[in-house]
Amino acid sequence: MSPSPSPSSSAAAAFSFQVASRLNGLDKPTVWHEFSPLASEYNAVNLGQGFPDWDPPSFAITSMNQSIDPSFQRNANQYARSYAHMPLATVLAEDYSSRFARDIDPATEVATAVGCTNALYCALQGMINPGEEVLLLEPAFDVYIAQTKMAGGVCKFVPLRSVNSHDDNDNDDDEV
After folding, report:
1. Hey, which residues does 47 pair with through a beta bridge?
2. 93 in Cβ contact with 104 (< 8 Å)
């Protein structure tokens, strides 16, 4: 008599986890898979990715330490609100209010992200509807393609050409 399968292994076998079909092809190597190792191999300056090889300045280290030290009354062990940590949003609103000569409300008009890639992802998710076409100028940063597809958009590539290229294939209205 063979033992019956445990409930957990039966349940796992019943499910097939697959990436959404709109993401097909995003597992392929990108330009970074080629250029980063080459830059390292030939001791070249990699202008495509940031790999700082120096410490932050001492004032930044001190500020980072103070930001998590309870003796500075920062309450840094709590989650920030999702759109922006209010003290940061307030400082940004004050700065940009003076730059743009209008009042900016830190509670409703300021959002922050953990970097440009995250900000772009949020913007594309909020602006692209499934099936909409998105123009990408080539050469394009590979993350634009992935994020457009993740939002359900359809990438349409337009090669970037110099105005003075004297190429019969310069961009025209029909191409765009």
Report:
1. none
2. yes
Residues across the chain = 176
Tens of pLDDT, residue by residue over 17-44, are: 787 887 788 777 777 778 888 888 998 8
- Joined together, the tokens standing for residue 173 give 């209205």
Nearest-angstrom CA–CA distance, 112 and 125? 15
Q: Check: CB of residue 107 under 8 Å from CB of residue 90.
A: no
pTM of the model: 0.61
Q: How many CB atoms lie within 10 A of CB 112?
A: 14
Strand, coil or helix: 53? coil
Angstrom distance (rounded) from CA 150 to CA 124:
9
- Tokens representing 58? 């001492």
pLDDT digits (tens, 9 = 90+) for 39-89: 889 988 877 766 677 899 999 999 888 888 888 776 666 777 888 888 899
Q: Which residue has the tokens 């050469």?
A: 139
